Amino acid sequence: MPHKQPPRKQSITIGRGARKRDEDSGTEVGEGADEWAQSKATVRPPDQLELTDAELKEEFTRILTANNPHAPQNIVRYSFKEGTYKFIGVVNQLAVHFSQVGNLIPKDSDEGRRQHYRDELAAGSQESTKVVISETEILEEEEEPKESEAEAETEAGSQIDMPAAEAAEKVTEEELMTPKQPKERKLTNQFNFSERASQTLNNPLRDRECQMEPPPRTNFSATANQWEIYDAYVEELEKQEKTKEKEKAKTPVAKKMGKMAMRKMTSMESQSDDITKVTQAAKIVERMVNQNTYDDVAQDFKYYEDAADEYRDQEGTLLPLWKFQNDKAKRLAVTALCWNPKYNDLFAVGHGSYDFMKQSRGMLLLYSMKNPSFPEYIFSSESGIMCLDMHVDHPYLVVVGHYDGNVAIYNLKKPHSQPSFRSSPKSGKHTDPVWQVRWQKDDMDNNLNFFSVSSDGRIVSWTLLKSELVHTDVIKLKVEGGTTGGLDGLQLHTVGCGTAFDFHKEIDYMFLVGTEEGKIYKCSKSYSSKFLDTYDAHNMAVDAVSWNPYHTKVFMSCSSDWTVKIWDHTIKTPMFIYDLNSAVGDVAWAPYSSTVFAAVTTNGKENVIRDTNSLSHCLQLQCARLLMCFPRKLMC
């Protein structure tokens, strides 16, 4: 056969001859294109604007956004973290124009898989029937010559085997004609999978989402020199050494108790996390409810006036107003009271017991006039509280004296019930009950300090350092003429038992001390070995001494010998003596007058006394349960 040349080259030559390259534009143009371009004319509408080249080159851009113009932009929600309403920056911009519920099922879903599997089973069953029928026809064709050969043999055989052979052939034919349908296979996945050993139902998974604000972030940068790194390591080593020394000083029992206390504190903190979030709000609501409940009492406090007092000769009545009580302080006596110097509605109450045989525990409760139903602060102690005092400049610091001779300082800013500072036998605690404590001015190093008096005859000054209490014995009370001779010529001094003291309002170093022997000592902080003066004041124990706030030379004392005496500290004899026919527990000067004072006796009476021109007028006010009194009733 002759070889045929492909027409490819001819077509290529024709195309090259038919086209030519335009030198000006550089584009390929076919034959006749120039004529077509010359005959073509542009048609413009009459109202078309004529633009300059600069206007034609100007570009107008328009940005298409997916924002919904009808979506609100001023949605405000309350932020519990900041306590204010804040605008929401993210708004849903989805706008649905048309929606229709259809019956389509995704292929990847469980229902879609089941339908697809059923369709495959149906198609597979039809094909299997066709295959079985074709196989049966082939078997019949193959068995026809075999049957002709077997007929001669079966004629000689017995006719008894014919029914059994026919039955076997029928069974095989039925098995071949009826195709086996495979069982529906269960689709297993992570949601409905179960082993043969366990057939428990798996719970459905649920998604939970929450929206929160990102935490605030700050950028910090600093440079560390070699000596700064060295100083930091030295401080850390010193801290570790101090902690090791403290652990060595602790006994095993103390360590166990400390661990148990820490566990209790952590458990209580974890339980109270949810409550502390609403503590302030609940306290305000409680005060509002109590103001409505005790509105009648507040009106009586402001406007009550007993008209019958005009017809009573030097006698009056007291109206009990508020009643403060707590179930935890049951069976405990009220041993001390003190008003807060800054917050006029807050006062502290000390609970304990004066009975030596019934000493158990003590409590420090702080009540507010705004909420008489429940105390604002509750502190418990292992020993009874005998006295307390609140600092003038730091009203959150409360110092207490215990029956076991310890002194402790509670910080109201810290919620835990343990005192911030506490004395110990190692730090110089008293050996007898502490009867009075009093805050003093800061020392030269601006450290807080207070004084305490006890039955062991010691007047102790306590200084607050960073982590401990430091004590200094100011003076030891010794009874004059109480020296006795002991064995081997030893002289034993009788120690005076201090019961009360008071510091001068203007002279810082001067103070008075009352004793159980009935004597009053005028002492100085600078001299610890000698008294400035001694007064034979009473025949029994001195229960209280108090300087006059207006007259710097006058002070007052009361005793269990039923008397109240007014003294001039430059004279050893009293100026006035008042016999109240019962043991006097405490006395106090009036804050508005230098000649008015009040005294409380053990028979349940309060005596308000006015001193004018050496004349005493005593008003006995009967009160079986003295809780609160009017300032106007104390004025005579």
TrEMBL record:
Subcellular location: Cytoplasm, Cytoskeleton, Cilium axoneme
GO-annotated molecular function: dynein heavy chain binding; dynein light chain binding
Pfam families referenced in this protein's UniProt entry, alphabetically: WD40 (PF00400)
Keyword Cytoplasm listed: yes
Start and end residues of each stretch annotated as Disordered: 1-47, 136-163
Record's keyword terms, sorted: Cell projection, Cytoplasm, Cytoskeleton, Dynein, Microtubule, Motor protein, Repeat, WD repeat
Family from the record: Belongs to the dynein intermediate chain family.
PANTHER family: DYNEIN AXONEMAL INTERMEDIATE CHAIN 1, DYNEIN INTERMEDIATE CHAIN
Official protein name in the record: Dynein axonemal intermediate chain 1 isoform X2
Taxonomic lineage of the native organism: Eukaryota, Metazoa, Chordata, Craniata, Vertebrata
